[in-house]
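question for whoever is on the cluster today: can someone run the full assembly for these? two chains, 519 residues total. i dont have access anymore since they changed the login thing
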Amino acid sequence: MALWTGFVFVLVVGLDLVVLASSRLRGAIRTVAFQGAVMSALPLLLASEHHQTVHVLALALGALVVKGVVIPGMMLWAMREAAIRRELEPIVGFVPSMVLGAVGVALAFTYSGSLPLPIHARHTLLVPSALSTVWTGLILVMTRRKAVAQVLGFLVVENGIFVFGLLLSDFMPFMVEAGVLLDLLAAIFVMGIVIFHINREFASLDTRRLTSLRD
Amino acid sequence: MRHLVALVAFLAFLLLSPLLLGVVNRVKAVFAGRTGAPLLQPYRDLRRLLGKQAVYSRTTTWVFRAGPVVGLAAVVAAGLLMSFGGAPALLPFPGDFILFAYLLGLGRFFTALAALDTGSSFEGMGAAREVTFASFAEPALFLCLVVLVRATGSMSLSGMLRAELPEIWHTQGPALLLAAVALLVVALAENARIPVDDPNTHLELTMIHEVMVLDHSGPDLAFIQYGASLKLFLFGALVVRLALGFPFSSTWWSLLAFLGGMALFAVVLGTIESTTARLRLIRVPQLLVAASIMGAFALVLILR
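^ ran it for u. tokens below:
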């Protein structure tokens, strides 16, 4: 069982690097959705016998629906509305950002063993995977220019926090977890509206279209 | 007994490599809805080429004639170090994986030199691309081999790919999986297969590997094509043994299962070639850097 959980963690970190390397926004959104869906299996895999079954199932199902279906669907909708297909000029290029992400992953996996944690982690790869995912999300937020890609980075950070939160899932009450998921949903909703408005402003103020008319 | 198995495995490597290419081509034909060439077509091509006379341009020197010979000799020598399906290699020694990688490098070096020797600008361009991509593929190959060294505690290819490899999957599964995927990408790049290079293309501007051998003819071209199929078999042996190590007690069964795995490898290769588009040239280094990163990640996983 621990081996399969290890495969899931490695898959999560691998998907981080795929997101960093992908220039097409649609592919990146799908990758993050897949990552969310893969992660939603983690509460089940890591569950100990102290857990209430209903609690674990609800957490997994909630994560699957919110991270795997609802939020990516809204992101794809925002992308269609804003008519952006790909991130053309990131501040840091795709290969350098991938290498940067890999350096973060290597550091996380090397040094997470020496972090003083109040609770014993249930799997050795849990903390480094969470840290690498948060690092990946921060790189995305910092280095991408398009608003959709930055929101995506925020989502990846949230995925990392979700994994880290599994460390505390013995102690966290159900309502808090549900609140976190709803909070995220609301944040993405607001960001989607903001993206939509930015796009509408730009569409009406597009200078290139004006010059082409004058010619 | 073990030497006999090693000898049989080596003979299978020498004899069955063109068949591997035949299977790949047949799978591609099936995907395209064609009947396709017979499975033994690569052997017929080789026989036809061997019966012809080579033509040499007056601008070429001995380097051009040495290229195909050295290329083939290097790949056969690399085959002596390789373990096929858990059987020991014919000439194993500690550290032979470094010689293995550089024998392949030597073959590529001479192929590139022979291409430059013709003085054709297209061949020079192909040689430049080939060595550029090879320099990205080499770190990935070495990282994967170092992962294997670390996981098995053995410094030779025969030791790394010996019968205990399947058991290491139980403890180091994620790292070995990453290494296997990275090795598959390296195999695609080194053998000029589709996401990196198209073996069937005949437009000089986009060719990489094939453009380097445009001026070779007759037996020289046969050597090059045979060498390419041997190289594909070598990388296939590495990937197959790593990904599907068959835990059979009998070495003969293990060898048979390995040959079945190689057929599966050919089918997978044909499927990849039929279902993916070729990458733009500037995206190829990105793919190979990703393979290196996977190898490095596997190493980090195994070292912690």
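summary bc i know u wont read the tokens: Chain B is about 70% helix and 0% strand. Residues 26 and 37 of chain B are 7 Å apart (CA to CA).
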